[in-house]
Design a protein that fits this description.
The strands form 4 sheets. Strands 5-4-3-8-9 form a 5-stranded mixed β-sheet. Strands 10-12-11 form a 3-stranded antiparallel β-sheet, with no helix packed on it. It has a two-stranded antiparallel sheet with strand order 1-2. The chain has 7 helices and 12 strands. Helices cover 29% and strands 24% of the residues. The protein is elongated. The longest helix has 16 residues. Helix 2 packs across helix 4. The model has no long low-confidence stretch (mean pLDDT 94). The structure holds benzoic acid. Benzoic acid binds next to helix 2. One of its GO terms (biological process) is cell redox homeostasis.
Length: 224
């Protein structure tokens, strides 16, 4: 059974969070959204990830991306754990709260509905924990990107920011971003675009790499 697919409208769930009850679409408003899940409160890798996410929150805000975390424990645990996250990750008294809410999915309802459980990681009662999922949702509420890491592998939030930059660029312009791309680098002309169209759409020029096949598909143009 396929789970959520790219282009699907993201479910408009209701949830309890550390900042109150939310309806997801209302919470997002007309922003982009990123929902990232965590296996369990009071766990080491998650503590480092949430701290990094908090430190990058201004970068996400600049890009009009609303962040929200999820973990399968109750609000009381989330509030207690938040103090540890802040103590571990912030300069003394530099921050008093996380800059995004954490969903309390203590019944694992969202974890199941969104296909986020990691079959290899169980809690002490044998219940599966959540994997490290990342969902990036566009202002149209459609799923633009999903990542799924096992509980034992922490994510790279610089990479998540990088893919937001690519998603936002490619949602407005008919270009694609190559390997390891970052803002300012050249972008690629999509294979479906004819040479004539590319010439008129990219007045700064299109550079085509000669290849043994003779096919002219490796086309770069300066960052728009
Ligand atoms: C962690 O966040 O450290 C963690 C959680 C579940 C399994 C392994 C590591």
């Amino acid at each position: 059974m396929p789970g959520l697919l790219l282009g699907d409208v993201f479910p408009d769930f209701e949830a309890e969070t550390t900042t109150g009850k939310i309806k997801f679409h209302e919470y997002l408003g007309d922003s982009w959204g990123i929902l990232f899940s965590h296996p369990k409160d009071y766990t080491p890798v998650c503590t480092t990830e949430l701290g990094r996410a908090a430190r990058l929150s201004e970068e996400f805000s600049k890009r009009k991306v609303k962040m929200i975390a999820l973990s399968i424990d109750c609000l009381e645990d989330h509030h207690g754990w938040t103090k540890d996250i802040l103590a571990y990750n912030c300069e003394e008294s530099a921050c008093s709260s996380l800059p995004f809410p954490i969903i309390a999915d203590y019944k694992r309802e969202l974890a199941v509905a969104l296909g986020m459980l990691d079959p290899d990681e169980k809690d002490k009662d044998g219940m599966p924990l959540t994997a490290r999922c990342v969902f990036i949702i566009g202002p149209d509420k459609k799923l633009k990107l999903s990542l799924l890491y096992p509980a034992t592998t922490g994510r790279n939030f610089d990479e998540i920011l990088r893919v937001v930059d690519s998603l936002q660029l490619t949602s407005g312009k008919r270009v694609a971003t190559p390997v390891d791309w970052k803002p300012g680098d050249c972008v690629m002309v999509p294979p479906s675009m004819s040479e004539e169209e590319a010439a008129s759409l990219f007045p700064d020029g299109v550079y085509t790499k000669d290849l043994p096949s003779g096919k002219k598909y490796l086309r770069y143009t300066p960052w728009p």
